[in-house]
Amino acid sequence: MIQSPLDDYLSYIGKTESPAIYHRWSLISCVAAVLERKVWFDWGHIGRVYPNMYVLLVGAPGTRKDTAINAATKLLKLTEYKSFAPTRTTREKFLMDFELGFCSTALDATMKSAQDEFEHLFSNLIKPMDVKTSACFICVGEFIDFIGQKNVNFLNTLTVLWDNLQVYEDKLKNSKSVKIIRPVQNILGGITPSTFATGMPAEVIGTGFTSRVILAYSDPTNIRITYPASPDVDKQQALVAMLKNASEMRGELKQTPAARALVDRIYQEGMPPNDIRLQYYFARRLAHLLKLCITISCMKGEMEMTADTVTEANTLLTYTESNMHKALGEFGNAKFSEAAQKIMEFLGNADGPVLVDSLWECVSMNLDKYFQIFDVLDNLQKAGKISIAKATEFHSVMLNKATLKENLPGVDYERYIKEAKI
After folding, report:
1. Looking at 261, 295, 328, which one is the last position of a domain?
2. Which of 311, 328, 345 is the last residue of a domain?
């Protein structure tokens, strides 16, 4: 298994009370923040894909989400990155700050706005890779504190901004108009499943916000460290140098033929999630994978996406997705979705076919009647996830080969298992 910058970061972090998956996504978010729109992947008629990402670390209180966020952003601040959004705001104030620039002062805000407009008007005289952008990094331990309870309008705005428009314009309640030139935004926040259920409006699934978010869930590690070790200065300097190097990279990220073929195979053979609440995320999964591939490539200092990078990105994404249903908790829970997830997990841990009665013991608390389990199994079979065999009056169920992680294209099973055990 090839050592990657993400492994180097875990080595720098050492043993902590925060889960490894939180540390990985925190560093990835910081790298995406410094990349802004400087590096992109040309996605044919769809246009350029930029590496900006929305990442929420999800877990029960005490899972040490803040610890992971703070460790990564400490490195980011050492690069003198300053485009952080405030931890509390309103939609209107956020947009006005975004227009002026989060790293500007009140005294020079007007001059900066005029300068940005000038640079935009004459951007055809500047190299496309050097055109001014409006950057923003929302980095908060409690995402709901930033966004507010059930704030549909703010969430809709964030949804639109994810798409990297050339210009974002809006007329605010006070009749003031804002015009943000080439906005690029990243989010790294923490949230609990219960807060997700109570603080997020149910409409966000249908409106597309959840399809644009990586939900990195973890149970508590149950590790207790009274006196954490001090950071290794040499390792810290190496990681800061990596971030600075990434911030200086420019241009289009190419693909090797092997990487191109692997991404195509991953997309063509991808299996839909068991949980219907994640169907919109799955429809956008390829974009998430490409963004992650850009970020990891730049972490390595490479302007060409390799098959190894695709495998590393897809392995991390696959592992993260295996727990996304836990991140949602009871949020927008469709009938039978939790039962279907439990069945898939049960079959995944089984050595062979499993009798329906054994599955019923697993999901009886999620269903009202015994016969309902056959509706769940029928849906899973139609989705190609399981096979059902009938021998006399008994039914046995087993996972289809393609749903096993070791048989999925672009998944390093050894790394997948290592990630699950860290």
Report:
1. 328
2. 328
